[in-house]
Design goal:
heterodimer; A: mainly alpha; B: 5-stranded mixed beta sheet
Chain lengths: 189, 218
């Protein structure tokens, strides 16, 4: 009966991969800003899922598990400078005016490459909050669970990340800052 | 919490940025062929993912292929997943048992049905149907009252038809599944769960918490 179990597992995993690769790829694209890097992330993710497939297959939402794996791959492998950078960002003042300014800055951007570049300047956890909350459209509770933090942290990080994103877009020119790292280091100098 | 206006702008720009990925079909092809080689070839290693991790992943990839095997005999057998069990019988029929507590992966069930010779459109959160509904449902699909199990006879399905299987989650632990015949060349899909007609040919529902099958016309 082994072949039945293996065949079933294989077909089931293939079906899962076929149904989940695209949202994973787009999540990875937003997290990395690069299509090749996104594909690498999806491959790593699927390999990790495959390794645990006997357990994952019985979960209610295997796709949610895979998304969590992908996000954690990015977060756990982000270098310390990113965390340091997060600490160096000025704290958001929490006023509605700041949000209005941020919304205006986002409205004025019509270059998608600039948006991806600006996303890349954010610390990985801030990027993850924006991607999970506003692209994957997950509720705050689920984002908090994935990132292992409180709901309050998610909402405050979302505000801070949005403000930083808008600030970066408003003050920066893409051609002058070709790489995320050099641009963000300039911004924090 | 960002204002609603800002949240709306964030959703818009992120959706646009995510949709802008170049040629995802090539990535799809590589992924579905299990050409898992993260960080190699023309693609750069994902930022922050170490070469050691990538190397381990390649080994895992090869191990995966080995464990699953690349060539499979096709014979009568049982496919058992958390969401469904599909038993292929020697007489060409198949028995499908849906677990109403687990949302199924539509592509998996669709692929498994098709490999058992049962053309099907399997969907989640939507259901596809034809108007008028093709005749022959009761010959093609049958099931005992009160059980989430149906027997499908692909030989009895009229030419040019296939099964529509729609799986709906109505709570965190329960699903409904609807089954109907559709014309392959003419059907529409909607997010509404169909209701069984009072008599005659029609749709079969499985689920509604207690795991009760409701044959059409019963």
């Amino acid at each position: 009966m082994d072949w039945v179990r293996h065949k079933a597992s294989e077909r089931e995993f293939d079906g899962f991969a076929a149904g989940s690769w695209e949202p994973l790829l787009r999540t990875g694209y937003l997290m990395t800003g690069d299509a090749g890097d996104a594909e690498d992330l999806v491959q790593e993710t699927l390999l990790k899922v495959a390794r645990r497939w006997n357990r994952v297959r019985s979960m209610d939402h295997p796709a949610a598990y895979a998304r969590r794996v992908l996000i954690n791959l990015v977060l756990h492998n982000t270098d310390r400078r990113s965390r340091r950078r997060a600490e160096l960002w000025p704290q958001d003042d929490g006023t509605e005016t700041a949000d209005e300014n941020a919304a205006r800055a986002l409205r004025q951007v019509d270059d998608l490459a600039e948006i991806r570049w600006a996303l890349g300047t954010l610390p990985a956890r801030q990027r993850a909050v924006l991607v999970l909350r506003y692209w994957a459209d997950l509720p705050v509770t689920e984002v908090a669970e994935i990132l292992g933090c409180s709901e309050g942290t998610v909402t405050s990080t979302a505000s801070r990340a949005a403000a930083h994103l808008a600030e970066t877009l408003a003050r920066s020119e893409l051609p002058a800052a070709r790489t995320c790292r050099s641009a963000s280091m300039k911004g924090n100098a | 919490m960002p204002t609603e206006e800002l949240e709306s702008e964030l959703r818009r720009v992120l959706a646009q940025a995510a949709a802008d990925i170049q040629d995802p079909q090539q990535a799809r092809q590589r992924l579905l062929e299990r050409k898992y080689r993260p960080g190699l070839g023309h693609r750069r290693l994902a930022a922050g993912i170490t070469a050691a991790t990538a190397a381990a992943a390649v080994v895992l990839g090869l191990g995966l292929s080995g464990a699953f095997g690349s060539a499979h005999a096709r014979a009568t057998g049982t496919i058992r997943t958390a969401a469904f069990t599909l038993v292929e019988h020697a007489n060409g029929t198949a028995t499908l048992t849906i677990n109403p507590r687990v949302l199924l992966e539509p592509s998996t069930l669709q692929s498994d049905l098709q490999q058992d010779g049962i053309p099907a459109i399997v969907t989640t959160s939507k259901f596809c149907s034809s108007d008028p509904t093709p005749v022959g449902f009761q010959q093609a699909v049958s099931g005992p009252d009160g059980a989430p199990t149906v027997t499908i006879n692909p030989a009895a399905m009229p030419a040019g038809t296939e099964l529509s299987v729609g799986n709906f989650q109505y709570s965190s632990t329960s699903t409904d599944t609807a089954i109907e015949l559709v014309n392959t060349s003419s059907y529409t899909c909607s997010s509404a769960l169909p209701t069984p007609p009072p008599t005659g040919e029609g749709v079969m529902l499985i689920g509604r918490g207690a795991g009760i099958g409701i044959p059409a016309g019963s």
